[in-house]
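Example 3.2
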Amino acid sequence: MTHFCPYCQMIVSEDATTCDYCGADLGQYSEASYEEKLLLALQHPVREHRMIAIQILGQIGTCRAIPEFSKLLDSEDDFYLLREMLHATAKIDCPESVDLLLKAEKHPSKLVRDVARYLGSCRKSA
């Protein structure tokens, strides 16, 4: 089984106590909050882990996710991941989520723009 550092996402040995790449104390990860672990998972190299983290962050309504989602919008080209992020954003009740949906309406991908417009219109009518 492959193990990744939760902080820099580099491969580490199963019994490592510190990351050889970023120097993080891997024992401290167990002390991190559930929300913090989900936010770290947004950088995980396995797409499905990122998708699950996005879904849960939306379900629990974590406003701290919005700046991280904005970074994904700027750097990610996977439409399905971005669509999931936009749906999660629409579930989060904070002013920054509205701003992120508006930002997504200007995304280079027409598919992303269309999802953002649809979700924005649903929020307005609710």
